Amino acid sequence: MLGKCVFAICLALPAWADAPDASIFPRARPAVVADAVDTAIAAATQPVAEAAAPVAVASVRPRARPETTSAPVTTVSSSAAPAPRERRGFLASLFGPPRARPQTEEAAPRPSGNSVCGDPAIIGQQLEPIGSRTRGCGVDEPVQITSIDGITLSQPSTIDCATATGLRRWIDDGLRPAFGDSRIVGLQIAGHYVCRTRNNIRGAPISEHGRGKAIDISGIILEGGRVLTVQDNWNSAMRAAYRAGCGIFGTTLGPGSDGYHEDHMHFDTADHRNGAYCR
User: Fold this and answer.
1) Structure pTM?
2) Residue 208, SS3?
């Protein structure tokens, strides 16, 4: 095996010796080739003097779609404000927008002040039931009246609604007609609810005042502040007004009736078996 290798080397030696410039180093390039290479390198390193001719490049834009027949588009004026965007909460997205509330008629205006007893002309306030340790006294549904049909009471008066309604009828049907053109603006009140016996007599029955069914009037107040008292002005007008109370009230007592009502008119709504008691 070794002998074969030596023989092959010996055969190759003459050919290798005759080979021109056989070397493991690169041979020098011919001048022509070197000049061409240098020229190309120089051209590549120099700045481009002129822009190269444009190269046609395929457009990346999508081609226009063919026109199709569609509904006409309404042109919106640029001056019109854009519609506000509806804001919907979580619940609205689930159940939809809230329904509009039905319109209701406005309630009729309430009369001035606080009316009681279902009559706008009777002004006052509803009170809590009045009880008493004295048998026969007390008012189940008392009201405290301050004015009736524009006529002011000199003090808030506690009575029941039946008595308040009777007093209103007496003002309209008896008092005003009796005084004609004289404008009445107030009533002087001498008594209303109080738990006591009749005429304050010991052992007598409970007065209608103790039941909230009576009121005592001692004078008439005219416009301008003039006061006509029952005691000093028991004239024809005052007597006519007093007589008009009979029938409206169950009991009417005044000057000359029993000696206990000489300075005032007593009206109450007691229900007598034989009709109204008028003295």
Assistant:
1) 0.60
2) helix
